[in-house]
Amino acid sequence: MLGRLNQYLMKRAAVSIGGLVVFACCVLLLERLLRIFEIVSNSADPAADATRMIYNLLPHYLGMAVPMALLLGTIITIDRFSRSSELTAALGAGISLFHMTKPFLLLASFLAFLTLFIEGYMQPVGRYNYRQLVNVVKQQSFTAALREGTFTTVGTRTFFAGTDLPGAAIGPIFIYESSEDDLNNQTGFRITTASEGRLVVREDTNEPVLQLSSGRANQVDNGTQIDGDLGFGSASITGAASDTKFRERGDDERELTSMELFKNRHGTVYDTLSVETNNAALHLRAGRAVLLLILPFIAVPFGLNYGRNPSSAGIFIGVVFLVSLQKALEFGQSLGASGKIPPWLGIWSIIAIVAIFAAYIFWKSAFKMGQPPLTAFAQQISHYQGKVVKKLSNIRLKLAGVERV
Q: b vs e for 318-335, b when ≥16 Cβ sit within 10 Å of the residue's Cβ?
């Protein structure tokens, strides 16, 4: 019976947690989508670039969604289990609350190992790939200018292209490019015109190329001298504003995998990264994985509800608790990275406090069998609220000069 009960709870919890992970990722991506659409508006292939950006951002949002989904999924599962009187029946059959917590611990263990992989490898690589892709898209600079049919300046070039030609062709095309010769201290510009052009994208580099046909090019130096008048049947102009290669991965600690951070814990591999910053990031990743193993001991008491009326207090307090905990961990990491405290202290002191809190409320719920923690907390609030109201009423009566019987 115990095995079947655990399977039943695990199935319900897995469905709730999985659904919450998907929902949380979608919600978190909504805000970033606006920036992604703004970036890919200048891309030669906006749909593919936006898809790759979202793919590289998913590990970042998965790292945020997994703890929230585990906490809320456990609270929702236990709350439903309580309201249907199944919890009362299980307790009456001699099954302890600790045994009913085992399925959530198994799920938490799986998610902890998954988090180590996501935050330790997928997030750093995905973050770098996203930044690299943004850089590449921004280099594809004249694509949007040619589609707009207006004069647009990008770097040293000014583009104009008509958009009234049939098919995929554009034209007429006008390109003004300023130039400067530092050696001879001369300035000039180049004008290129063409009756027609086509925009293609190189498959190997994803770089836009403007193929011109039936055009002319003129070079003007010092404002008056024409240094060439070239007619051509076909010519190609690349759309990259800069030929510089994107930097190597490892600009900051968030782009380094956990193994790379571990190897650099003495600062011998990446000299541009301080030891404190490196170790604070490493402890934060390990602390988040350990935190997942503690959350079931908090979520189960938060979800207890011995009545039949649904309650959203556990969900609300769980969200506030997890958001506050996340901010506390980030603050502890910043203190450790700045060298004000040891890097491990800013993370593991918070984890220790959370573990003590989890042990206390779970012990109260599993072995004392009193009111659920949130119900007892609400009753205490109501009790003190009644005292405050009574004192305020006495003060009001005294001020009004009425003698209380």
A: beebbeebeebbeebbeb
